[in-house]
Amino acid sequence: RSLQIRPYSSGNQLIISGSLLVLAHGLGVEPAFVNAYLVCILPELGYSIGDKTPCLIDPGTNRGHSETKDMTNVYIRFGNAPKAYSVIRKDTGNGGQATNVSWNLVVEVFA
Fold first, then answer.
1. How confident is the model over 34-59, as pLDDT tens digits?
2. Residue 1 CB partners (closer than 8 Å, separation 6+)
């Protein structure tokens, strides 16, 4: 039996603190794996346009997101902090808060 991987990518999604993002993946089965990352769209924290970085989840500061999934959709609930994500700066390695309008979220789903 061979493993079949059926991918879905959301493309760039706006980050709106506290909101629920619902993405219809069209796979027909509950995904086995969800991967989300940030894409820089305005230079910030040492990153250039197009740079990608992992999403850091920090519930203690209401930054990051939660993920749930079913046979139809992936649900992303953004943290309600004004800057929804923390990142490690590309230029210094220090922590920083990402300004929502400077970043997009991309969600990849695999079945």
1. 999 999 999 999 999 999 999 999 98
2. none
Residue type (1 letter), 97: Q
> Does the pLDDT at position 79 exceed 70?
yes
Q: How would you classify the pairing of strands 33-40 and 103-110?
A: antiparallel
Among residues of the chain, what percentage have pLDDT more than 90? 89
Torsional sign, CA 74, 79, 84, 88: negative
Q: How are strands ordered across the β-sheet holding 73-78? A: 20-24, 73-78, 65-69
Supply the Cα-derived Rg of the chain in whole angstroms.
15
* DSSP string for 72-97: SEEEEEE-SSSS-EEEE-TTT--EEE
pLDDT at 59: 87
Sign of CA dihedral 45, 12, 65, 102: positive
Rounded to an integer, what distance in angstroms lies between the CA atom of residue 35 and that of residue 67? 10
